[in-house]
Every structure is written in structure tokens, then in C-alpha cells.
Amino acid sequence: MGIIMFIIYALVGALIIKAGVDNSRSTQYSKEILNELREIKELMKSNKNE
Q: What DSSP string runs through 2-34?
């Protein structure tokens, strides 16, 4: 019984770690998208002023 519980805890732990890694990647992508949008906004402002 103890080995089965250990395996279940190990699998749950691995899933939690995977979710954390996926979340950090998602956060990185979101930051990159926001930076791109800021650059586009600045370009649009500069083009409007010309």
C-alpha cells in the first residue's frame, strides 16, 4: 500500500511541476505579446504625428 501511495504522490507532484512550468511559459509569452503591442502603439503614435 505504501508503494502505491508513493507513486500517486510522485505523479501528482510531477503534474504540479509541469503545470508550474507551463504557467511560467504562458507568462513569458504574455509579456512578449504585451511588449510587441507597446511597440506597435508607439509606432502608430509616431506615424499619426507625422
A: HHHHHHHHHHHHHHHHHHHHHHHHHHHHHHHHH
Per-residue pLDDT band at 49 (split at 50, 70, 90) = confident
User: Would you report the helix, strand and coil content of the chain in percent, each value rounded to 5?
Assistant: 95, 0, 5
Q: What is the pTM of this model?
A: 0.59
The 10s digit of each residue's pLDDT in 8-30 is 999 999 989 988 888 888 899 99
Q: Between vectors from CA 30 to CA 34 and to CA 45, what angle results, nearest 5°?
A: 10
